[in-house]
Structures are given as C-alpha cells and as structure tokens.
Amino acid sequence: MTASGRPDGFPTGGTEVSPEQRIPEWGDDRVATPALDADLPGIDPAELADEDLVREMQSLHRTRLDTLRHATDSALANHLRRTAELETEYLARHPGREVDPSRLRDA
C-alpha cells in the first residue's frame, strides 16, 4: 500500500484499496474474520438452488448501504465475505451470462 495522507492510514481518494482488501489490515478491537470456517453463518452457496442463490444475493445487495454505513466492523466483514461467496458461485454457474450492451462503457 502506498503512503497515505489520511490519519487512519488508508489511501486518500479510496480507489487504491477496496474495503475487502482493507479489512485484514484493521488492528485494535476490530474483528476481520471469524476464527473458524465452521462458525461462519449461511449455507454453502454451492448447495443453494439457482433461485435461492439469486434471492440471497438480492437480500445482501438490498442491505449493502445500511451495512456499510451503520453495522459493526465484524458485521461488515461478514457481509463482504458472504457477498463474495455468493457472487463467486453465481459467476461459476453462469460464466457466459448475458451482458446488456447498454451497460458497456466502451462502445
């Protein structure tokens, strides 16, 4: 990580390092991740049916801003972990997903 102009040690501008990448760097009393995988909440995404997987992702995305702004650090870390798990499973199941041409930046 590069030198920071912020007192908390994070880069200014917020674009160099994502929240997911910063979590393991947190010190003091913040919890980055639970110690044991067996204690992690949620069903293994590979065991979810397609409609359940999409429903779980919709729920996480619906609560994203509120979690980011108001949840504890450990809740945010769990939210980020679960979102990554579910989205990774979705992409593994749908590698050739349809891309909407109106969403492309390079046209």
Question: Which characteristics define this entry?
Answer:
107 residues, mainly alpha, 4 helices, 42% helix, 0% strand
Description of the molecule:
By secondary structure, the chain is mostly helical. It has a domain at 44-94. Helices cover 42% and strands 0% of the residues. It has four helices and no strands. The protein has helices at residues 19-22, 50-62, 64-70, 73-93. Residues 1-43, 88-107 are annotated as: Disordered. Residues 22-31 have a biased composition (Basic and acidic residues). It holds the Pfam family DUF6158.
Rg calculated over all Cα atoms:
17 Å
Secondary structure tally, helices = 4
Structural class: mainly alpha
Measure the end-to-end span. Answer: 33 Å
Mean pLDDT: 77
Low-confidence stretches: 25-37
The percentage of residues in β strands lies in under 5%
**Helical amount:** 40-55%
Number of strands: 0
- Shape designation: globular
Largest sheet: none
Write the element-wise H/E pattern from the N-terminal end onward.
HHHH
